[in-house]
Design brief:
Shape: elongated
CATH superfamily: GroES chaperonin
Structural class: mainly beta
CATH topology: 10 Kd Chaperonin, Protein Cpn10, Chain O
Strand order of the largest sheet: 4-5-1-2-3-6
Largest sheet: 6 strands, antiparallel
Radius of gyration: 18 Å
Helix content: under 10%
Distance between the termini: 58 Å
Oligomer: single chain
Order of helices and strands: EEEEEE
Number of strands: 6
Length: about 100
Amino acid sequence: MATATKTKKPIRLQPLGERLVIQREESEEKTAGGILLPDSAQEKPARGTVVSVGTGKLLDDGSRSQSQLKAGDRVLFTSYAGENVEIDDVEYLLMREDDILAVVE
C-alpha cells in the first residue's frame, strides 16, 4: 500500500477589496534604561510592513480605486486596527486601508 505524502506549500494570503496584509514590527524587549520587559508588559507596536494589497475600494460607479500603498511600504496604523491572523507561526494583521495613518519613509 502506497502512502501519499503531502508537501507543505507556502501559504499566500491575498486580501480582497480595500484590505491589506501587514506584518507587525517586533515590540521592544527593553526600556531605554535597559530594563527587560516581560511579554505581558510589552506594548504591541502600531507600525509594520505591508505584505500584500487588495484590489482596491469598490466605488459607487462600480469601478475600483487604486490603493495608495504597495507591498514593502512601512506604515503606522491605529492601535486596535485589523484582525490577527497566524500562518505558519507568523502573525499578520488583516486591515482596511482606512486604518493606515501614515507611510514611514
